[in-house]
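Final paragraph of the annual report: two paired records, presented back to back.
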Amino acid sequence: MERKRSLGATLLLALTFVIPLSAQESPTEVQQLERALSASPDHGGMWIELAAAHARAGNQAEAVKWLDKAVARGLDFDIAENPAFAPFLETPEFKALVEKARVHRKVVSRSKVAFKLPEKDLIPEGIAHDPKTGAFFVSSLARNKIVRVDKAGKASDFTASGQDGLWAVIGMKIDPATRTLWACSAEAAQQAGASGLFRYDLDTGKLLGKITLPDKPQPHLLNDLTFGVGGEVFITDSKAGVVHRLRPGKDALEVLVGPGTFVYPNGVAASPDGKKLFVADFARHLSIVDVATGQVRPLPHPETVNVVGIDGLYLHAGSLIAVQNGSGADRIMRFRLNAAMDAIESEEILESRNPLFELPTTGVAVGDSFFYIANSQLRNLDEEGKVRADAKLEESVVLEVPLGD
């Protein structure tokens, strides 16, 4: 199905800046994926994509090898529904794989619709919640703006398209103590690379400040952020592979974790004491960052727990809540941490295989519920960040799933 090919393109797009191709190279699809996998060898979603590429090239043995690796890891995905594997489905090897994969197929339905967004071409990515008013704020990739949804579910523009120099708006967080909304924004064109951090007054909508990073000498994509203690802000920069820190009262970002450690840092959450960050490297794994030193180490987890392909990441009641959209079936996960919060003890699927899912992206914990964007429809954007002419868009839906035990 086309969705699988689109996922492969998305993963390649996320990784090509790490190992760029020269102007003289015209690699095959398999070679491109192998090159990307060299930067992210543990990414189960890439194993599936590489298997499909080998199948399209007629390499059945290689396709079986990579699918078997993904099945053994416990990834939840559909072999029979991917047209790349259709020519081989009646072979004994593929029949056995299909049966093994069924064991890991889990449908978990606990979510209910919280509200819908009437602008079908919004292409939402980030979501935040104001505890004072009960309003939600949703960012738009295609319309370069932020939408406010009141307690009654009525949506209105918090910012106009392109206001204050906004590009595509990505991750957002609200600081209730200062009544401010912080938003990451980036140029939509994939060949560009300027990005910015914007700060707004929640009550007036007035821009209070912004910090922008140019596209040279390297591209940037400020993707998501979290708050530390004492007013610090930490921001992931996916294109640069960096985690930035903004100290209180400063108007310039400083690098906490430099390039080379992460491939594509995305979701980020801070521990309650502010001493460590949990960072989701979309292409690799979850990591712990020591805020005092900037040192990074992988977050230990059981072998059967899949921690790649994570977009949004949040800390709630001693667990990490994750929106996982890049490795097998889209799902909402809870990773339970140990008492020291330095290792994952177990996982729980909160939602999986919801028929409304179309690349869920981020969410926000509100009390004992998690509200998240179920169908961003991100795959309907072209390389310039515009909605494709042939796109078949639906209303975007925000779902609510309970977090209580």
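The closing record of the year follows.
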Amino acid sequence: MTKRVLVTGASGLVGRTLMKALVTHGYEVHGLSRQQRDSDTPAIRFYRWDVTGGTLDADCLEGVTAIIHLAGEPIGALPWSNKRKRIIRESRTQSIALLYDALRRNPSHEVRTVISASATGYYNHRGDEWMTEDKPPANDFLGGTCVAWERGVSAGKDMGLRTVSLRSGLVLSADGGIYRQLTNIVDKGLGVVPGSGRQWVPWIHIEDAVKMYCFAMEHSGISGVYNMVAPDPVIFSQLIRVIAAERRKPLWLPKVPAVLLKAVLGQMSELLLSSTRASADKIRNAGFKFKYPSIGDAAKALTH
């Protein structure tokens, strides 16, 4: 029997890596994208959708038994105007609603499982306190966005679906994202620390992130919410020091005052200044094994 998975956010950093991993493990993959795309891999086919316009190529669901939902506007791409905040939230809630609508219109569908991204922004700034999945959300934009996002995903339970939301920390990859930005700065000898540098950074190596999506999809006992973070959180200044050491670069480490970051970035400065010490205990207790549990392991793998 063919194993077929639908992946949204197929053009993103995690989505691209995930689809390749799924094919390697014997899956056929249907990818949803806003643009018409061709695939150079027979096991991957792309379909179009327009979340804002509420349209979806229903053929994307043919033979699909699981959906891995990664779609959403990038949080750190632009300053958070009220319009931008609305776009960020609606891109997450409307996209899952569109998928569920398509499933309701097709009662003969074979989908049984929905695994979705979420974010540790659910907790946002919580100092040194360990954030387990039962902690309440932050009463701010990021917290509210994650609550709405996860609520939209869990609505699938009313349709008999097994749903999982994985609250991801920063995904570290040599191919792009925050890690590439940090290494570019360090390589120039310009490593800086936002605020005090004592804020906890929840992170995960991209291979472990992809592995966790697959783990959640393939294990029927997994449901609800799990933190997608490595078990060894670090403070920001330590993260920069580890990157510099692995790349053998000298480090000039000035601290950028929080007030300056807020003046330049506005509310988006929360991404750099918030301290989130997220626990990986729940997913580990479910049987997940990390390939890169420590930031030293991860940085070494990303550098070499």
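The CA atoms of residues 133 and 260 lie 32 Å apart. This concludes the annual technical report; the extension proposal builds directly on these records.
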